[in-house]
Amino acid sequence: MNSYKWILSLLLLLHFPLYHASAQDAGEDFNTWTVKGRDFLGLNFSVAHQEGTNVNRLVTNYTDLYSLDWAVRMYGGHFIKDNMTLGVLFEWDQKTEDRTYEQDGKTIQTHLFSRTFLAGPTFRSYLPLSKNNRVGIFNEANLLFGYGKSVEQSDDGSEISRGISNSYNLRLGLTPGINFFISQGWAFELSLALLGLETQVTTSDVDGVESRVTSNDVNFSVNILSLKLGVTKYF
Fold first, then answer.
1. Longest dimension (CA), the chain
2. Sign of CA dihedral 64, 96, 191, 230
3. Residue 114: which of 99, 129, 96 has the closest Cα?
4. For the segment 4-55, what is each residue's pLDDT rounded down to a tens digit?
5. How far out from the chain centre does Cα 47 lie?
6. Which of 71, 169, 66 is closest to 112 using CA atoms?
7. 10 vs 21, 151, 174, CA distance in Å?
8. Which residue, 91, 73, 193, is CA-closest to 141?
9. How far apart are CA 172 and CA 159, in angstroms?
10. Distance, CA of 151 to CA of 165 (rounded, Å)
11. With the C-alpha atoms ordered 174, 221, 226, 130, is the resulting torsion angle positive or negative?
12. Residue 50, Cβ neighbours under 10 Å: how many?
C-alpha cells in the first residue's frame, strides 16, 4: 500500500509543472521533435517498497517483512523515419528483501540482495494524440542481454546457510507508454512493461553444493508497481 501512495503523490507533484507548461506553450508545434533525423536521450526509473508485520503469504506467515526493488534505465536513439526510432538501452535493477518467520519452533531470518545489468537495442514507434503532438503514445520493443548476481542468506539461530547465484539472460520486451512534451524538446514519459519473453541460465552455489538451471518464461501482466517515470530530451 505504501508504494501506491508514493506513486500517487509523485504523479500529483508532476501535475502542476505539466499544467503550467501546457498553459505557456499551447501554441508550440511539437511535431518537429519526432521527425526523421532527430535524436533523443532519456532516463527513467521505477521503485516498489513493502514493509509490514504478520504478513500472510500462501502457507507462510512472516512476522517481519521488508522489500525494496528499484530500477534505473538510460536510453537513446535516432529517428530513422518520422515517429520511428532505433536506439540502445541500459538498465540497472536492484532488489533487497528481509524476512522473519517461525518454522519448527525456530525463528528464521533470511536476507536477499540481487543486482542485474541489462543492455541491448530498442525500436520505438510514436503515435500523436493531439494535433500539435504535445501528448502522444509510444510503443517500445527491446532485446536485452543481461547479467545478474544475488546473495541469499538464512539464519535459524544455530546455523547459517548462504547461497550465491550468477545469472545470464536474454529478454525480449514490449513496453507501451505515454509522452508529454513540455517545451524545447523536453518531455515527461510514463511507461509500463507489459510483455516479456525471457531465457535465463542460473548457476548457484549453496553451502558448497553447485547447481545449474535453465528457464524460459513468458510474462504478460499489468502491474502498477512496474510503472516507469522519466524525462527525455529530443535534439
1. 70
2. positive
3. 96
4. 444 454 444 445 445 544 445 556 789 999 999 999 999 998 888 899 998 8
5. 7
6. 66
7. 17, 32, 25
8. 193
9. 41
10. 7
11. positive
12. 15
pTM of the model: 0.81
* The total number of residues written for the chain in this structure: 235
What pLDDT score was predicted for residue 13?
44
Residue 173: name the closest of 229, 136, 138, 219 by CA: 219
Tell me what pLDDT residue 6 has: 47
Beta bridge partner(s), residue 109: 100, 155
Distance between CA 235 and CA 233 in Å, rounded? Answer: 7
Helix (H) or strand (E) holding 88: strand 84-103
d(CA 178, CA 23): 19
Q: Which set of grid coordinates corresponds to residue 85?
A: 526510432
Q: What residues in the chain have per-residue pLDDT under 50?
A: 1-7, 9-14, 16-17, 20-23
What residues contact 91, with CB distance under 8 A and at least 6 apart?
A: 71, 72, 73, 74, 116, 117, 118, 119, 144, 146
Predicted pLDDT at 27: 66
